[in-house]
User: Which sequence fits this backbone?
């Protein structure tokens, strides 16, 4: 489908497979971006213009929240399709914004955009996280965004399991699988510490402070600033259980 220009229907009808137990892109974030792409193509074909035209740069720089528990779209499928969208928009003269400050790739949290409740997943949309829940802090991916957990003490294993980070696309990010594997160990360790079983812990606070992850630029990765801030709080929490013997 290389040389054929995309149509609004191509965007509206695009489906992605849904993953559950490995990282996937937040469905609502992807749907909102594609809704903007669809609206842009409608306007370019002479239809009503409902907002500013999206540019190839905005699509290329888009960041999506990443989910580990609730369903998410397969990252490689979304990335491959967005590469096609970027090439299409650039070919229509919408390569970059008109000298303006780069506008946010996703509109502010809208209550149910034109994509409707069904989403683009091959599976039905499940209990997605609501905008007012703590993980919404990671929607923008800005390094200066406060991204500490809601409590500086009293962290639970569930807090670790449900932690979400913004995903980087063309900037350096931490290897997602390495971070996920490490957080799985941290979740188990914190559960053991809270049960009074430090002998079964597989991590120490010092290891949390010293851990280093592989970085990636060509593939999606977790926002390093957000991961580092979360690990700082996690190490602080674990120190409370490591009293001198």
Assistant:
């Amino acid at each position: 489908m290389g040389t054929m220009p995309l149509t609004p229907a191509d965007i509206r009808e695009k489906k992605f497979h849904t993953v559950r137990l490995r990282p996937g892109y937040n469905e609502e974030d992807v749907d909102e971006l594609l809704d903007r792409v669809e609206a842009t193509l409608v306007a370019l074909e002479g239809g009503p213009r409902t907002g500013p035209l999206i540019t190839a740069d905005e699509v290329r720089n888009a960041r999506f929240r990443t989910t580990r528990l609730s369903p998410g779209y397969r990252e490689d499928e979304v990335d491959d399709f967005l590469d096609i969208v970027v090439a299409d928009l650039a070919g229509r003269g919408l390569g970059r914004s008109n000298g303006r400050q780069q506008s946010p790739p996703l509109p502010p949290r809208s209550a149910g955009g034109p994509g409707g409740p069904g989403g683009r997943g091959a599976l039905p949309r499940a209990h997605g996280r609501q905008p007012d829940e703590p993980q919404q802090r990671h929607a923008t991916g800005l390094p200066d965004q406060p991204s500490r957990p809601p409590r500086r003490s009293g962290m639970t294993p569930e807090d670790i399991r449900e932690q979400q980070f913004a995903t980087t696309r063309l900037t350096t990010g931490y290897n997602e699988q390495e971070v996920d594997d490490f957080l799985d160990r941290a979740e188990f360790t914190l559960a053991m510490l809270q049960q009074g079983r430090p002998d079964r812990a597989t991590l120490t606070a010092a290891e949390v402070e010293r851990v280093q992850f592989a970085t990636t630029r060509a593939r999606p990765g977790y926002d390093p600033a957000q991961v580092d801030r979360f690990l700082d709080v996690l190490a602080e929490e674990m120190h409370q259980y490591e009293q001198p013997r």
Notes: The chain has two domains: 1-132, 134-239. The mean pLDDT is 75. The chain is about 35% helix and 5% strand.
